[in-house]
Amino acid sequence: MPRVVSFHYTLRDPNGRVLDSSAGGDPISYLEGAGQIIDGLDEQLRLASAGEKSSVTVPAKKAYGERDPGQVQRVKRALLPVDGELSVGDQFQTGPDRSDPVVTVSAIEGDDVLLDANHPLAGVDLTFDVEITAAREATAEELSHGHAHGGGGGGCGEGSCGCH
Q1: By the 8 A CB rule, do 153 and 34 touch?
Q2: Are 6 and 27 in contact (CB under 8 A)?
Q3: Residue 147: closest CA among 5, 6, 36, 22
Q4: Is 108 among the domain residues?
Q5: 102: which residues sit within 8 A by CB, 6+ positions away?
Q6: Of 79, 105, 74, which Cα lies nearest the Cα of 92?
Q7: Residues 19 and 88 in one domain
């Protein structure tokens, strides 16, 4: 039976640089197999127990995927929905909906801008230093909704999960 697992993490790139961390905040809680965390991490935490600490390396293909050169496009600057200065590294959403892709400016060449729709961590092997804070069986409600409800297994009656 799938579990709800809660954990703290520190995410590092192959050079050991810290990219993200849950330190100082609440642990992350997820429903195993529901796609709430990257597949490679979900797979490697399947047998983890509360109190366990480990270092987990996730290859790029099981994290944010390999880089896809087809996701890089050359666009005329005048066609971009961005006002003002534009710099390499800037990110913006390509449309008004939250589901519209986010792109990163990878180069500016005269009137042309190279936009990269790959995830910024595509092609990068990731290392997570993980501490499991809790692990329990998922409730029937969590299974039917496809996500964890609070660290203690509470429902979504407060509307915080947005599934009602």
Answers
A1: no
A2: yes
A3: 36
A4: yes
A5: 91, 92, 93, 94, 117
A6: 105
A7: no
- The pTM of the full predicted model, rounded to 2 decimals, is 0.79
Could you read off the pLDDT of 42-81 as tens digits, one per residue? 999 999 999 999 999 999 999 999 999 999 999 999 888 7
Tokens read off for 47 = 């047998």
Query: Tens digits of per-residue pLDDT, 127-140?
Result: 999 999 999 999 98
Q: Can you spell out the DSSP letters for 67-107?
A: --GGGEEEEEGGGSS--S---TT-EEESSSSTTSPEEEEEE
The verdict on 8 and 58 lying in the same domain is yes
Question: Residue 160 domain-assigned?
Answer: no
What's the CATH code of the domain at 94? 2.40.10.330
Q: Which residue range(s) make up the domain with 15?
A: 3-64+122-145
Which alpha helices (H) appear in the chain, and where do they start and end? Answer: 39-44, 140-145
Examine residue 26 and state whether it is found in any structural domain, yes or no. Answer: yes
